Amino acid sequence: MVKIKTGLGLDSHRFHEDQSVDKPLLLGGVNFDSALSLEGNSDADVVLHAIADAISSITGNTIIGGKADELCQQGITDSREYLKLALADLEEHTISHIAIALECQQPKIDPMVEPMRNSIAELLGITFSDVGITATSGEALTDVGRGLGIHCTVIVTVVSK
Ligand SMILES: [Zn+2]
Predict the structure, then answer these.
(1) At 69, is the pLDDT very low, low, confident or very high (cuts 50, 70, 90)?
(2) Rounded to the nearest whole angstrom, what is the distance from the C-alpha of residue 63 to the centroid of ligand 1?
(3) How much distance in Å is there from the Cα of 12 to the middle of ligand 1?
(4) How far away, in angstroms, is 80 Cα from ligand 1 center?
């Protein structure tokens, strides 16, 4: 019998106040070529961290805040490496769909949805049509909605092989 599971992951990062900080803004492995950058010991790719957490909620193995922190201390700051660890834990599960919701005032997400879907599909080994991305401004209701950072929510659906 095919068994379906859903994983939920959240992550938030604050923007560097000093826009002269020389750090790329990476979301879903895509460089946004922006003056904005996110605080964090790693590359601070909030989307890949939320995806890794969503996978962790299926596998039960903590990557972000666990193995990823160990890699970070070894100088590995590329979040794609953390995602690989999470994916390796999926073992007998196959990802059938991923839904990603971003909240931020900046940058504009809509023009970058297609490259992000391509990047995430490649990283996860799934097809473009199985990656959904939506974005909202947050209406200034929270610190994220007032433009201080980016919040990402991810739901991943997997089926047993
Ligand atoms: Zn993070």
Answers:
(1) very high
(2) 11
(3) 6
(4) 12
Closest alpha carbon to 55 in 157, 128, 130, 127: 157
Counting the structural domains of the chain, the total is: 1
Amino acid occupying residue 79: S
Apex 101 CA angle, 100 and 104, nearest 5: 135
Question: Percent of the chain beyond pLDDT 90?
Answer: 94
pTM: 0.97
Q: Would you state the pLDDT for residue 142?
A: 94
CATH number of the domain encompassing residue 69: 3.30.1330.50
Is pLDDT of 161 > 90? no
Q: What is the span of the domain harbouring residue 156? A: 4-160
Identify which of 65, 72, 17 has the alpha carbon closest to the alpha carbon of residue 39: 17
All residues with CB under 5 Å from ion ligand 1 = 11, 49
